[in-house]
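User: I've been trying to design a sequence by hand for this structure and keep getting stuck. Would you show me what you'd pick, starting by listing the structure so we're on the same page?

Assistant: Good idea, let's start from the same input. This is the structure you sent:
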């Protein structure tokens, strides 16, 4: 019987320690740096901690999607920059080769330069597609994560969720291009 009481006491201490750690983890502001949330002590939040901080609804509906979108955009940009640079380098080398073959008084067609030129053009196009998709993904994901940070920090301060300031943008639509007021 004595062992059961000791076991119950140990389990009670563990439960109290977990609730204390949980309460410490939830309290305090969060900061966002490069798509990653940090707690007030500057430690990176795990997915389980983010779930506990933001709640089930915000975590599933906003945090997971925004985080994936940001990370996908960041990866595409990191891939797109060197691929585009390599493609432009090949294109330039092929172009210089074609110009050199034109200056000479030979009838050679310089097929190596043409292949280099065309492959450089295709590789640069693939890299620019990565950039064209990655940059908007990264920006939109970052804005969504910033909104989560702003709303969470406002909620723990006892203020209503922060609303973004109104802004004017140029948008295209069915009937052409126009100005749109967002508020």
């Amino acid at each position: 019987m004595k062992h059961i009481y000791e076991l119950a006491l140990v389990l009670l201490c563990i439960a109290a320690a977990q609730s204390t750690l949980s309460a410490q983890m939830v309290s305090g502001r969060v900061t966002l740096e490069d798509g990653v949330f940090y707690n007030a002590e500057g430690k990176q939040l795990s997915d389980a901690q983010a779930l506990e901080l933001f709640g089930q609804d915000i975590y599933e509906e906003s945090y997971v999607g925004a985080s994936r979108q940001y990370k996908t955009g960041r990866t595409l940009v990191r891939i797109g920059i060197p691929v585009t640079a390599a493609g432009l380098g090949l294109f330039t080398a092929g172009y210089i080769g074609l110009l050199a073959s034109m200056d000479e008084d030979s009838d050679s067609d310089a097929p190596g330069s043409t292949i280099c030129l065309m492959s450089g053009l295709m590789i640069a196009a693939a890299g620019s597609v990565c950039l064209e998709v990655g940059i908007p993904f990264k920006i939109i994901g970052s804005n969504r994560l910033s909104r989560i940070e702003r709303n969470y920090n406002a909620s723990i301060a006892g203020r209503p969720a922060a609303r973004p300031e109104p802004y004017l943008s140029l948008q295209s639509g069915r009937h052409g291009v126009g100005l749109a007021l967002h508020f």
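That's my pick for every position. To get oriented when you compare it with your attempt: Confidence is low (pLDDT under 50) at residues 16-26. Residues 58 and 64 are 9 Å apart (CA to CA).
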